[in-house]
Design a protein that fits this description.
The protein has 215 residues and is an all-alpha fold. The protein is built from nine helices and two strands.
């Protein structure tokens, strides 16, 4: 297909496609003349992936480029690739080499999870816990378990298919899955809150109400 058809199929403007080509985010089509090239379904899929990351996920193009690079040229170590992918996702927390991340370390040790200060998610967790504490919200082992236990089960189910994949496919799956499934987890949590409140299964206790607050 010509670039105009590629644009129509992918819903990406021609000018944007040309930008992606210049930036190396999209491979060039097969040249059929000095001024014309043919594009295939792989180009449509690539443009839709970029759109999913940049428009739906809302990532800056520089971060999209980082994720695409991990997919195109996977690292030998899947754990290192996952760490790079997490670093490309919000919230963007600049790691502090002088920070021991005491909040994150305490939470991870309580859960029996590995504490690796170089992993971007550790700095993200430290920042998130600090924000919760600053707002005066509860943060203790019971709260840690409330959030961590279901997430560990979700993570176990997510990584289960990796065992039957090649290293390259496993890295692509892990990197893209991390980037694109997280918004679904957040949306489902919010919708579950809405459902529980809207159906009266949970009711906030009014001032002066001696009830327990549970429907």
């Amino acid at each position: 297909m010509r670039m105009s058809e590629l644009s129509a199929r992918s819903a990406v403007p021609v000018a944007t496609i040309k930008f992606y080509l210049r930036e190396g985010m999209l491979t060039r089509g097969e040249a059929t003349s000095a001024t014309r090239a043919e594009y295939g379904e792989e180009h449509v899929a690539r443009l839709r992936l970029i759109a999913a990351l940049a428009e739906v996920r809302g990532l800056p193009l520089a971060r999209v480029r980082d994720i695409l690079a991990l997919v195109d040229a996977p690292l030998d170590d899947p754990i290192q690739a996952m760490g790079r992918a997490v670093g490309a996702l919000p919230p963007y927390v600049v790691p502090d080499p002088d920070d021991a991340y005491p909040r994150a370390q305490a939470a991870l040790e309580a859960l029996g999870l590995a504490f690796e200060p170089r992993f971007a998610a550790v700095a993200q967790l430290e920042s998130a816990i600090a924000a919760v504490e600053s707002a005066g919200l509860p943060w203790d082992e019971e709260v840690v378990r409330r959030y961590a236990d279901p997430m560990i089960r979700v993570a176990a189910d997510e990584v289960a298919p990796v065992g039957g994949m090649t290293v390259n496919d496993a890295i692509a799956y892990a990197v893209l899955g991390t980037a694109l499934y997280e918004p679904i987890l957040l949306a489902l949590r919010r919708l579950a809150h809405h459902h529980l409140l809207a159906t009266g299964r949970v009711r906030a206790r009014r001032a002066g109400d001696g009830s327990s607050g549970h429907g």
